[in-house]
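mind reviewing these tokens:
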Amino acid sequence: MVSSLISFAPKDCPLCPRLVAFREQNKIKHPDYYNGAVPAFTAPEVKLLIIGLAPGLHGANNTGRPFTADYAGDLLYPTLIKYGFAKGEYKERADDGLKLVDCRITNAVRCVPPENKPTPVEIKTCNQFLKKEIPTLQNTRVILTLGLIAHQATLRALDIKQSTFKFVHNAAHQAGNVTILNSYHCSRYNTNTGRLTEQMFHAVFAHARELCDK
């Protein structure tokens, strides 16, 4: 079986007025873009669930596949291949044939927000989809949260108090049968400022590999 896209939010999700308005603007500016709530990219079986923040305007909002055609994907997908969570070649296109292995990639917020900044209300509203998605993954061992917002959204979806697990890069938090693993987001800003280096990101995935193989 090959990797596929699976939706938990409708493409034209109506729940967040500001995001709907931005989506409509982008349909006019970029009529060839996907312009909708981006589905998860998934392997048939999932040991590792990766949760990002939201689609990028010219990345996933363009291609319809998480982290595809944006700077963050240039670091994420080669790292997935290196640690055995993907195979093939990442070519910044949804039809590049790249396959995930025991992995799914999704987002805390499914629609692209203006300036890559969803509001607290939008994050909370969209959490219902993550809350619906996580229980479908019966064999998941690790949830990797890319950034603080993804970490907080994961705790909310799992009905865990925010104060229970503090976000710390490469920290592992045991939540029942699942380990929540933290990483700084692989954004251009974080890598350009040195907050996240390639070596730091690789260390997180080496940790995830170890936890998934236990």
